[in-house]
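> forwarded from #structure-qc
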């Protein structure tokens, strides 16, 4: 029997979708089946459940006060940062794979609007994961720990915290949490770093957003064909749940692109975060304070 940690439990693209992807002119869409299965393999190494050990600010401040040397203080601060980086990595992968699994299932059974909505959420999750992982890896590579000297980076620590606790909500219990950045900045940075053709990523995201909202694309998904035009010039349009029209094919193409690209970003970001953690802990061990 397949288990939660076994990629066999992850749905594969249906035969009709594999044929659709193979016939696509877009190499990202053509790679969908392979990249989705590649991302699903992460489940083999994701702990279930995952235990996240970290300091809140009050206990961190106390631990800092109790650190007797600069090296010990570095370990106190950066081991906590490392745990938060790992939590971000694990939670992002879990969320991404959950969205990917549901999106594949919806496309397989030709529920095109739910699939597009899930693909849009998945794309945003993958963009955030990839952008913040790039930021963390870059900064950790630049870290230097000198004997007896405290190394701190409040902005880096703040950004790591934001990746997990950031929100766009401003009322009630959410008002004191970090303000999450708008996704557009991450889209621009990723589009540049991934050497994507101009506006490909923002256009794919905008297309899926349009379906998420009550706009024409989500409506056109149900329009089948013009059955007749009467003597007054009025069109009699057939509308139904089982419609497979030009609009549904366009939705399928864009949703598959999002699934394929996001799957690759999730896999690569997971690997890059492993490198970031290894680099951080190796540097800390060289201080002689971290076991």
């Amino acid at each position: 029997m397949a288990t939660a940690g076994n990629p066999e439990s992850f749905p594969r693209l249906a035969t009709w979708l594999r044929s659709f992807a193979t016939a696509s002119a877009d190499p990202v869409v053509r790679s969908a089946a392979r990249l989705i299965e590649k991302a699903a393999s992460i489940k083999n190494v994701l702990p279930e459940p995952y235990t996240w050990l970290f300091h809140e600010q009050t206990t961190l401040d106390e631990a800092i006060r109790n650190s007797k040397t600069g090296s010990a203080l570095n370990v106190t601060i950066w081991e906590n940062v490392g745990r938060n980086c790992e939590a971000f990595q694990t939670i992002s992968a879990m969320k991404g794979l959950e969205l990917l699994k549901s999106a594949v299932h919806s496309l397989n059974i030709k529920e095109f609007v739910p699939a597009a909505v899930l693909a849009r959420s998945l794309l945003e999750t993958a963009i955030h994961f990839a952008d913040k992982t790039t930021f963390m890896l870059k900064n950790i590579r630049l870290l230097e720990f000198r004997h007896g000297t405290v190394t701190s980076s409040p902005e880096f620590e703040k950004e790591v915290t934001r990746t997990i606790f950031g929100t766009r909500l401003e009322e009630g219990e959410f008002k004191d949490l970090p303000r999450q950045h708008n996704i557009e900045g991450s889209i621009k940075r990723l589009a540049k770093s991934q050497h994507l053709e101009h506006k490909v990523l923002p256009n794919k995201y905008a297309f899926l957003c349009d379906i998420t909202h009550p706009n024409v694309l989500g409506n056109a998904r149900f329009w089948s064909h013009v059955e007749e035009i009467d003597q007054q010039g009025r069109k009699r349009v057939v509308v139904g749940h089982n419609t497979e029209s030009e609009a549904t094919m366009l939705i399928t193409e864009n949703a598959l692109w999002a699934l394929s690209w996001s799957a690759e970003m999730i896999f690569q970001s997971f690997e890059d975060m492993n490198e970031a953690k290894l680099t951080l802990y190796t540097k800390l061990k060289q201080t002689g304070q971290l076991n």
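QC bot note: The CA atoms of residues 191 and 199 lie 8 Å apart. Residues 1-7 have pLDDT under 50 and may be disordered.
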